[in-house]
Amino acid sequence: MQAAPATAHPPQKLYHQAVPWLDTDGQPINAHGAGIVAHQNAYYLYGELKAGKTELVPGQGWECYRVPAGGVACYSSHDLLNWHKEGVALAPNTTDPHHDLHVSKVIERPKVIYNDRTKLFVMWLHVDSETYGYSQAGVATSTSPTGPFQYQGSVQPNGQMVRDLTLFKDDDGRAYLIFASESNATMHMVLLTDDYLAPTTQEKQILVNQSREAPALFKYRGLYYLLTSGCTGWAPNAATYAVAKTPLGEWRQHGNPCVGPGAASTFGGQGTFVLPVPGHPSEFVFLTDRWNKTDLEASQYAWLRLKMVGRRPRIYGASQAQPR
Ligand code: GLA
């Protein structure tokens, strides 16, 4: 992430657990599968806007609950505590049933990074059909962090299917798209072009045949850490972390970084992003979604404490989030 304002408050003020999380107007924040970008003294939070009736898509072998695709919501903050609703940064399409962003489709896990050369905010997101058979990565751009983002289309990088995804912008300006592929069996990591608008052919299969999803990548003291969940639909499961020396290098899978009661279910959540805590180099916040599968609009969030203990991440539930 880019330089951002240092927050004066201690990191534990940032953790919150599955209580209604309200914006500065007192309304529930509607930004699921979220990511955050820091830019010019502000933070911008992007997430899936889930609104309306949840329905079960018939004929699937799994619990395919969905709401109409609501586009991507954006909130801004100067302190990571108070979030102002900016509105819909990437609007859904309401008229063309063949459009990737039509309300009948799936829009998930939007992530945004800033390109210093083109001065564009670049959003990648998982776009899919309601049965998840389309499996593409969409890309959109905006000159302003709050949008409106212009949709540029979608792609299967090097012919590979895309489901849960995340983005990572490295210190050297290179950016990577990380995504669950091969019917969720194996993750892929692909280097993006310099403008971040397309995949290159520099791609690597990682966590091969481990069936991981919900990727969230961060860097700490020169190493790369990838948190993922298992594949159990909307139900929570145990997270794991993997470590590599370079993004396209060898990723070594480790165990569950969560500790204490609730660790086996990631405290009831599924990860989506890792936020460095300004001014506290070994402290991060692990953003998780607590899905309510039969009423997805009512899904909650938990921001969990992630502390680096030596080279190992440790993630704590509410009762253990105090500094140590
Ligand atoms: C998993 C994924 C979510 C969503 C649901 C659909 O939880 O992480 O992004 O695709 O499955 O069931």
From TrEMBL:
Gene3D superfamilies: Glycosyl hydrolase domain, family 43. It comes from the Bacteria. GO terms for molecular function: hydrolase activity. SUPFAM superfamilies: Arabinanase/levansucrase/invertase. CDD domains: GH43_CtGH43-like. Keywords: Glycosidase, Hydrolase. Belongs to the glycosyl hydrolase 43 family. This is Glycoside hydrolase family 43 protein. The lineage of its organism: Bacteria, Pseudomonadati, Bacteroidota, Cytophagia, Cytophagales.
